[in-house]
Amino acid sequence: MPSAPTRPAPLRGRMFRGSEQVRLGVLTKNQLRSSAWRRLFPDVYACASLPVDHARRARAAAALVVPGAVVSGRSAATLWGSPLAEPGDDVELTVPPGCRAGAVRGIRVSRRHLPADAVVVRGGVRVTTAVRAAVDIARAEPLEDAVVALDRLITGGLATLDDVRAAAVALSGPGCRSARRAAALADGLAGSPQETRLRLVLHASLLPPPVAWPDARVALEYEGVWHGAPQQVARDRRRLNELTAAGWTVVIATAADLRDPVALIARIAAALGSRRYV
Question: What are phi and psi of 210, to 5 degrees?
Fold first, then answer.
């Protein structure tokens, strides 16, 4: 039966530079290649007992690959507790202009000046504030994706709508207009990314803004895959049944409808009894 891989006590549960630990005599090169460690970036390893998610990769990148860099964008949002980055996404870092940080696979580096009040230390690494992460996302990404991200940050309580809009107004340089437009469209009320996308479809149409039109007794609901607690599903179904019993027409929108917004708008207009919105 093969023996368990050797993990020296000082490295258990840690991330480290392999070459440094070999130089110090803590590990041999052969031990470094064992299953005790997981390679995150060139010469950067983690104890295999650690689950590797995007947040841990971001901390390793900022602390060990580009020391002194600031975690930014979606990576920063993830460190704040809003998982906007997938585990395997590139880690987003910001360094000052002129910094000679080289290209590393799995890390995307931006060179720009960040105001001192936009950076804090969190989890042992420098990271932009949640508000700054929001406007950085809004300035760089497609409008719909940016608004979805802003709504998630705001709904999660990591930033307020007023603060995000104020930061977007104060922004200058490339992407500042995109950031302001995204901030203007965000509302921080959506319960899911798809609800934000549905709201943006309505915003781009001739339909009146609300998703409930009491004069016409029409309501619009987004229905995703039922994955909540059974009690929540039952409550949602009961609420829809009560609306129907009270004489309301409930238009149900799904992910398929978002792929065909013209047909969705026509269906809502038909429920409202008017073709002038199509």
Answer: -60, 160
Of 150, 212, 154, nearest to 180 by C-alpha is 150
Helix-helix angle 193-203:261-272, to 10 degrees = 70
pTM of the model: 0.85
53: amino acid identity, one letter: D
Q: What single-letter amino acid sits at 254?
A: T
Say how far apart CA 160 and CA 162 lie, in whole Å. Answer: 5
* Local structure of 194: helix, strand or coil: helix
User: What's the CA gap between 218 and 203, in Å, rounded?
Assistant: 17
Mean pLDDT per 10-residue section of the chain, whose length is 278 residues: 70 96 95 94 96 96 95 98 96 92 89 94 96 97 97 96 97 94 94 92 88 88 66 76 89 92 93 71
**CB neighbour burial string for 138-156, b if at least 16 within 10 angstroms, e if fewer:** bbbbeebbbbbbbbbbbbb
